[in-house]
Amino acid sequence: MKPILEIGNVTYSYHTLQGETTALNDINLSVMPGQFISIVGPSGCGKSTLLSLISGLIKPDSGSIKINEKKIEDSNTNIGYMLQKDNLFEWRTVYSNVLLGLEIQNKITKSTTETINEMLKAYGLENFKDARPSQLSGGMRQRVALIRTLALEPDILLLDEPFSALDYQTRLEVCDDIGAILRRESKTAILVTHDLSEAISMGDIVVVLSKRPGKIRKIVEIDMEIPNRTPISSRSSPKFKDYFNLIWKELTDNV
């Protein structure tokens, strides 16, 4: 099996009136189809910048990024992006919010609407199709945002701290929901988070970045050795603490 994403020797710098700041330096990473990658590191180390590079919103100074063996040249419509805010339009219903991406790309067909209806039913939102976002809980809003993104059938889903605005209990529940959805849909996902427990419980691999300029300090493969693993069940695994201590040491040694 070939990697769906290949990042080779990527370096990126910001240019301001005060001069040049290197955000990322010599990043190398391969991601296989269906993998869930979590990225952690100190504040300002370039985690979100890396997502912007993968999406094609910005270009690296050097190195290359390939998706399905094709070099990224511009912003990529095969990339799904979930941000800290769900960005649902309050004047649109749940159903019309989910349709938004398809509308913009002129992809509303019988097949795509059937897929949306199936996902709304599968993920507990069928009875809320006509509701407004203001009538939904935070967790339900995130599920709507995810379905809107998945409706476009992206090759890779980028998650930039999408759960950070939720309270702790809701955050755990939504992580479990979204983790299950992504595994059911066999989606490749890359999560940026400051929450180490979240990174370990959701990820197949945790990538640890150094302080700026961001370099990859360590890549940790996660194997909880439990059947039908979920984010919640991962936190109960005897191996969870070992992974936490290992990655925490990498982070604190780099302060």
Just give the CATH class of the largest domain. Answer: Alpha Beta
Q: Which parts are unreliable, with pLDDT below 50 for 5 consecutive residues or more?
A: none
What level of helicity do the residues show? 25-40%
Strand content: 15-25%
Q: Give the CA-based shape.
A: globular
Number of helices: 8
Instruction: Tell how many strands the DSSP assignment holds.
Output: 10
Radius of gyration computed on alpha carbons: 18 Å
Q: Could you say how many structural domains there are in total? A: 2
Describe the strand arrangement of the main beta sheet, using strand numbers.
Answer: 6-7-8-3-9-10
Structural class, please?
alpha/beta
Please give a handful of descriptors for the protein shown:
Rossmann fold, 4-stranded antiparallel sheet, ABC_transporter_ATP-bind, 255 residues, single chain, 6-stranded mixed sheet, 35% helix, 2 domains
Structural write-up:
GO terms for molecular function: ATP binding; ATP hydrolysis activity. It comes from [Clostridium] fimetarium. There is one protein chain. The protein has 255 residues and is α/β, with parallel strands linked by helices. It has 2 domains: 171 residues, P-loop containing nucleotide triphosphate hydrolases (Rossmann fold, 3-Layer(aba) Sandwich); 67 residues, no CATH class. The chain is 35% helix and 25% strand.
Summarize this structure briefly:
The protein is an alpha/beta fold. It has helices at residues 47-55, 94-104, 110-122, 138-150, 168-184, 196-202, 231-235, 238-252, and strands at 5-16, 19-31, 36-40, 62-67, 70-71, 79-82, 156-160, 188-192, 205-209, 216-221.
